[in-house]
Structures are given as structure tokens and as C-alpha cells.
Amino acid sequence: MKKPIEPSRAAFEDVVVSLVVPVFNERMMLPLFFERVLSVLKQLSLRWEIVFVDDGSKDGSSQYIQEVIANEKRIRLVRLSRNFGKEAAVTAGLEQTRGKAIIVLDADLQDPPEYIPAMIESWQSGVEVVLMQRRSRAGESCLKRWSAHIYYRLLNLTSQTDIPVDTGDFRLMSRKAVDALLTLKERNRYMKGLFAWVGMSTAIIRYDRAPRAAGETKWDYPALIGLALEGLTSFSISPLRWAIGMGLLAASLGVIFGLWIVIKTLLLGEVTSGYPSLIAMVSFLGGVQLLSVGILGEYVGKTYMEAKQRPIYVIEEIVENLKKVEQEINYELVESSYVKTV
Ligand code: UDP
Ligand code: MG
Q: How do residues 146-159 score in pLDDT, each as one tens digit?
């Protein structure tokens, strides 16, 4: 088997800014995305590249991007073999970047590309990470806004790593920060937490999050609840402590209740009552036990998934316009079955 292609950083030493764009069924969005992003990028006086990661789209997103690549050497497409989820897609994209500053951007234009120049300026002033913090969440329901608010607070209560409030994956990271991030090899990739774990000097830009320009969100409530649980359990083991706390509380209540019954029986003699309180106790204890077992199971499951050491994603092919690249900067073509030249 031929060896997979390494992003040849030497040939692209002059790439300054890399955009990483995860794409999952965003065909409707792409024309507008290219229009807005390219108009911003073309005004920059530094070299840029875009790495799209097609996370198993079934709506022709890949084909569309390939058509654009045919005329634009600065765009590459990493096609994953199936849908691995946004977190894996972003990781795959980050691994293929060659720039000195890397920006992660959603394909649905919820992260306005017009902020890119400001992000770069902020990075050039000497920080390693430029965080984009949402000022508003236009187009999202009250319930979503409210649940996001509660969730961030809860997350920070539990985890030892401070996870910044109201930030998503939209951010700029220096090469140093990305390389540090990529050393984290865990399979449960809770990106927000991983980003925060890396730390480094950080600037914050506040922005207004736009509503999705077309298509619909891939996150329904069950998926969001899954992500929320992932966040809570992958960055702290305090839920296990809560389980212990609940157990202790239930046990102490049980002891007090037991004593009270004994005393009552001694003083008032035996009366066959207490059926409702008995049922209440039994179901309370049952609930506490099931919850604790569930929490425990969550961690055991995580350990199991990590123990398998599976790769985070599988690349089916990397599409790039090598011919054009070769003409322009004398790029040494690396023979690889992974690379398809348009
Ligand atoms: N995405 C992805 N894989 C997935 C789900 C989403 O690559 O399994 C991409 C999607 O195409 C978009 C970004 O991740 O570019 C954010 O997705 P979405 O807009 O659905 O999430 P939200 O903005 O609602 O958090
Ligand atoms: Mg979105």
C-alpha cells in the first residue's frame, strides 16, 4: 500500500491563514458560502487556504466543492468515508491545515466570515487563540437559548477546565495551539473542552451570531442532549461524586426515617400504617440507585470506547488541485492513492 499523504508543509510555507470548514449536507449553503468567504479572503493581503471536510454528505456537497476546486488551487477537500460527526470532521480538517493561523468556520454562515480580518489582526497582535463569543443568538428559539445558558453554567460548575461561556467552535488558533490540540488523541472529542484544555494566551471578540442562512440544523434535541452529556462527563468526574453524595443523602434520610419509625412504634405501639411512605422511600431509593448506576455506566462506556483505540475518522480521499499548485509553486507531487487530482 502506498503511504498516505502528509500535508506537505514545506511546499506551503507561505500559507498564513487556513480555514477549516466541516460540511454535512450543506449543498444549499455552499454557493452563498463561497461568495461571502471568498470576497473576504480575496481582500486579505496574505496567503490563505480552505480545507473543507465532507462529513459523509449525501446531497452533492462534495461534487459542488470539487467543481470549485477545479478552478481554485487554494481549496482542498477531505472526504471522510461516512458521517463521523462535526467534532471528528473538525479534527480531520485541522490535521490537514498548513497555515500559521487556523480558523474553524461553520458552512452554514452562522459564523460570519466578515470577522476573519479582525480575528487575524487580533492574532497578529500576539495572542495564540482568538475566541469568538456570541453576543446574541438570532434565529434560535427561546428554549435553545435558555438551555444553552443553563448548560454552560452547569458545565463550568463541574469541570476543572474553565470552558468559556457562549463560545462555539468559531475561533482562530495559532499553529502552536492547533499542534497542541492535535496531541489530544481521545475518541470522545468534546471540542469545546479540548480547546479550553489547551489554554494559551487568548483574546475575545464578541459577535452577533447569525441565523442559519439555509438548510436546517443537524442538531435536534436528542443530539444536543447527547452532546451536553458528553461535555459533562468527558471533562470531569464530578458526576460520580454527585452519585456518592446522593447515595449518602438517601442513606442518611433512610437512617433518620428508620429511627423515627422505631421511636414512634415504641411510644405509640404498633400500628400498621405507613404504606405510602414505604412506597415513596422504595421508589426514591430505586431512582437514586438507577441514576448512580447510569452515571457509572457512562464512564465505563467511555473507557470502553477509548480502550478500543479506533481512529477518530477515516479519510476516503483528499481532493486537491495539484496540477495548479504544481505550476505555481513547484510543489513536489507526493504519489498517493489518497490524492485525487482534479
Ligand atoms: N456538521 C458536520 N457533521 C455533522 C453535523 C454537522 O460536519 O455530523 C457541520 C455542518 O455542516 C455545519 C457545522 O457542522 O457546517 C455546524 O452544524 P449545524 O449548523 O447543524 O450546528 P449548529 O450551528 O446548529 O450548532
Ligand atoms: Mg449552524
A: 877 787 777 777 77
- Identify the bridge partners of residue 316 per DSSP, sorted by sequence position: none
Pocket test for ligand 1, best of 19, 20, 21, 24 (most atoms within 8 A of CB): 24
Beta strands 75-80 and 48-54, pairing class: parallel
CB 342 within 8 A of CB 319: yes
- SS3 category, 303: helix
Closest CA to ligand 1's atom 3? 86
Q: What pairs with residue 50 in β-bridges? A: 19, 75
What is this structure's pTM? 0.71
- Residue 194 CA, ligand 2 centroid: distance in Å: 20
pLDDT in tens, 221-237: 777 777 777 777 776 77
Three-state secondary structure call for residue 136: strand
Q: Tell me which H or E stretch contains 245.
A: helix 238-268
Q: Which atom of ligand 1 is found nearest the CA of 168?
A: 25
Rounded to the nearest 10°, the torsion over CA 115, 119, 120, 121 is 100
> Cα–Cα distance between 303 and 306 in angstroms, integer?
5
Query: Nearest to residue 273, comparing CAs of 264, 282, 284?
Result: 264
Q: Phi then psi for 3, rounded to 5 degrees?
A: -80, 140
Contact between 132 and 207 (Cβ < 8 Å): yes
Cα angle for residues 279, 281, 283 (degrees, 5° grid): 65
